[in-house]
Amino acid sequence: MATKHPGQVAAAAAAALVAAVGINSYFGISRDVSHLQFQKQYGKLLETHLARLGPQSVSLYKLLTLADPRADAIYFEGRSWTYAAMLREVSALALGFRSLGVQNGDVVGVFMTNSPEMVFTVYALTKLGAVPAMMNSNLRDDTLLHCVQVGGSSLVVSTPDIAGHAAQAAKKVGDQVRVTTLNLGSFPTGLAQSGAEVFPYPTGDVVDDIIHPPKTFTDPAVFIFTSGTTGKPKAVSIKNQMIWFTSCPSPADCPSSYGQSSTAAFPPRIFSCMPIFHGTTFFTGLCYGVGTSGTFCISRRFSARNYWREVHDSRATRILYVGELCRFLLATPPSPYDRKHNARLALGNGLQKDVWLPFQTRFAIDEIREFYRSTEGLVKYDNIHFRRQGERGAGRVGYRGTLLRRLEKDQHIVRFDYDSEQPVRDPSTGFCVVAQRDEPGEAIAKVTSMETYSDYHNNAEATEKKFLRDVFVRGDVWQRSGDLLVVQRDGWVRFVDRIGDTFRWKGENVSAGEIRGFIADLDEVQDAVVVGKSLKGYDGQAGVAALSLRCGSLKEERAFMEGLYARLKSKGVPSYAFPRLVAITDEVKVGDTFKHAKQVVKAVEWGDVRDGKKYVLDAARQRYVPLDAGTWGEVLAGRAKL
Question: Which GO terms describe its biological process (predicted)?
Fold first, then answer.
């Protein structure tokens, strides 16, 4: 047999290597294997985590009792509490709540701004076995009262800065709802209580004789409110199983266990300026912090100017984000604190590609972990365990190569009909069809247990609307995400858009139908249509509206538009849900099925301002003003403060 020349051997080896690299690049084998290793290790960590908790003691309060008592639990504006200190505060508050009549199984409204008081309250209620219903602190009047009533709360606890709004809403139902306000030093002592009772904080020598009732996976842990896909806010019943999942240490923070490296410090110090009632902060801040004996660093509110100084002062090692937050930070002037901090990891959702890499570079963020999941959603994608993703992974929510796509059984992206806004069914089988690469479709996930499912509390109709039945076999049940995603040709998964009337702005879901209803209820309005519109330089979609008015003169129109903001605000519309652009038209057209022709408002030429019948929201002045060419230019440049 002829002996091959060493050069031939080397050339053949090089060719084989190139071929292997090409195959791996196309099929994504190495990334898929990494994902499978991650999932295997995560399963082991979950088992260990459950063994610590015990199957009959799965609750937020039990997690608190297991945390390292010497470690810092909370940091807030220069003050810190160890887990031992927090346990003492929680025990005192639990006694106070018991004196107010709170018992195991009760639902208590939590209407509070970011503060240690809010965190202590959530834990204290869970110690009693009660369910905290965490309401959006921006809600007012009828919308706020709706959330109190849909949760079934007879008691609302609030911080003094917003207690007056809760008391005002509660007055509408007489003595059915009590409002108490709690201040442990985070708010000025002279702040008016505005009709709310002062919380009965125990004084002197008290005996903590409260026995924490046993809780299982199927028991509700908290209610988190969301707008859902249509209608008013709904109470998502988060079961204790989700608390177990989200408090478990991630393999990404235990890299040696599955062969990857991480820049993350552990246990983490987690900084968030986003509301605690928001799922991102609650799960990845509060829950993950206590499950790892980490420190939850709370900011009262978002301030682009002071953000990095707060991160520096808190000594946080990771920050939480939604995409728009990162864009706001990039728009700020350079600061000495831009890189003078300990945070090397950012975790969140909605970070766009054009922001991702500049954000990392400017603020010295070594690692970004992007994930996709809604509060009540089962669909989950992670772009968290791939190091140094580079430009290809930026702006993506996960990865699905050929191997994972073949192995995946409980989650799919299916073909979608944009006209019916329903998944496509194969006419020969009646089953849904998995979308191909580069084909956007709706993300769905299999419902494996109704007992642990995050349903809409007291709203069976809305819960059922999230389901798809007989999807791939007769009798199966899947949950719709309401979102369009796509697996690209290179395997990266990208978020595309919201389906139907709901759109996202400032990291919040906005129901176009609900906002349209608020506007259409005004006497001067003949008809209205509201949609989401993508604007260059802004994450998500801005609300835009077309209105037909009963008033005829330009003077009456201007007077109506000048007062529109205040009137919607009085109805309880949160600031992020206001339409940013409004066009006045002679009529709002409808289609053959009497549905509003949304494409008409989407096609409005906003740059043509000659008719003087287009308006923009001036957020600083809290009113709508006529849109002129200069302001529209600012919008196009992404500089307008929408």
Answer: long-chain fatty acid import into cell
Which of 120-134, 521-535, 559-573 is the least confident region? 521-535
Return the number of other C-beta atoms located less than 10 Å from residue 268's C-beta.
Answer: 26
390: left (phi over 0), alpha (psi -120 to 50) or beta: left
CATH 2.30.38.10 fits 412-498, yes or no: yes
- Give the Cβ contact number of residue 6 at 10 Å: 8
In the chain, domain spans: 81-239, 412-498, 503-636
pTM of the model as a whole: 0.81
Nearest to 178 by CA among 153, 159, 205: 153
- Look at residue 272 and give its three-state secondary structure: strand
Q: How far apart are CA 478 and CA 456, in angstroms?
A: 16
What length is written for the chain? 642
d(CA 223, CA 352): 29
| DSSP reduced 3-state for 127 | helix
Instruction: Show the tokens assigned to 71.
Output: 């470690």
Average pLDDT over residues 253-267: 67
Alpha-carbon distance 84 to 494, whole Å? 43
Coil, helix or strand at residue 310: helix
Helices assigned H by DSSP within 54-184:
60-66, 83-99, 116-128, 141-151, 163-170
Residue 619 CA, chain-centre distance (Å), reads: 23
Q: Could you tell me the pLDDT band of residue 602, with boundaries at 50, 70 and 90?
A: confident
Q: What CATH number should be reported for the domain whose range is 503-636?
A: 3.30.300.30
Strand, coil or helix: what is 341? coil
Q: What ranges make up the beta strands (E) of 227-315?
A: 234-239, 269-272, 295-298
Higher pLDDT, 541 or 362: 362
Tell me, what amino acid is at 2? A
Measure the CA–CA gap between 273 and 343, rounded to whole angstroms.
14
